[in-house]
Design brief:
The complex is a heterodimer of chains A (112) and B (116). Chain A has 112 residues and is mostly beta strands. Helix content of chain A is 0%, strand content 55%. Chain A is built from no helices and eleven strands. In chain A, the strands form two sheets. In chain A, strands 2, 4, 5, 9, 10 and 11 form a six-stranded mixed sheet that branches. Chain A has a five-stranded antiparallel sheet with strand order 1-3-8-7-6, with no helix packed on it. In chain B, a hairpin with a 5-residue loop joins strand 4 and strand 5. Classes of the chains: A mainly beta (112), B mainly beta (116). At the A-B interface, strand 4, strand 5, strand 9 and strand 10 of A face strand 4, strand 5, strand 9 and strand 10 of B.
Chain lengths: 112, 116
């Protein structure tokens, strides 16, 4: 089964609202990362949170990590239409050698 | 400092042909990773290379796929005798450090392979 599964699979909100995406994983990790992918494009790294951290902020982004529940959440506050994209969590360190294991992603649509 | 470069950005091949995908890591990065993304799915790890060494190829199909990262030049992902199921976006990522410590990976724009 897949490490790193996001929910919801799709999320539709209005500009100005907050968007929360969740990620669960199965094995132990060194860190968890969140990426954004615009349609048909490459991945943009958003934030990395290490296994000994519980919360991290970057601009309008807030990431939490609960290693006891093997879960993470990404909160985007005051969303904008430009935030429309797919968001992926990726874990590292569960199987060695820093390979990233991605979930299937959450497709976020922010309507003006 | 240029980011990770991949070429070509789009590649069309007929069944049975060979596909060669190139990746130039960021300057100073000696660790390269290849991932494959099928439509509407997340990325799947394929292979991790350092200069002249394959470190982890646990995600590579056993046949037709190979990867290299020579001392000089870009990393190459080679797919022989392509089939329609190989149609996907192939992403390369690089990092300055590897190992098991976990570090940010910087992704290229991807190569979109279409097999007719």
């Amino acid at each position: 089964s897949q490490q790193g599964e996001e929910d919801p699979q799709a999320l539709s909100i209005q500009e100005g609202e907050n968007a929360t995406m969740n990620c669960s994983y199965k094995t132990s990790i060194n860190n968890l990362q969140w990426y954004r992918q615009n349609s048909g494009r490459g991945l943009v790294h958003l934030i990395l949170i290490r296994s000994n951290e519980r919360e991290k902020h970057s601009g309008r982004l807030r990431v939490t990590l609960d290693t006891s529940k093997k879960s993470s959440s990404l909160l985007i506050t005051a969303s904008r239409a430009a935030d429309t994209a797919s968001y992926f969590c990726a874990t590292s360190g569960g199987g060695g050698y820093n390979k990233l294991i991605f979930g299937a992603g959450t497709r976020l649509a922010v309507h003006p | 400092n240029a980011g990770v470069m991949q070429n070509p950005r789009h590649l069309v091949r007929r069944r049975g042909q060979e596909a060669r995908l190139r990746c130039s890591p960021m300057k100073g990065h000696s660790h390269v990773y290849w991932y494959r993304q099928l439509p509407e799915e997340g990325l799947k790890f394929m292979v991790y290379l350092q200069k002249e060494n394959i470190i982890d190829e646990s995600g590579m199909p056993k046949e037709r796929f190979s990867a290299e990262f020579p001392k000089e030049g870009p990393s190459i992902l080679r797919i022989q005798q392509v089939v329609r199921g190989d149609s996907a976006a192939y992403f390369c990522a690089s990092s300055p450090l590897g190992g098991t410590s976990g570090n940010e990976q910087f992704f290229g724009p991807g190569t979109r392979l279409t097999v007719l």
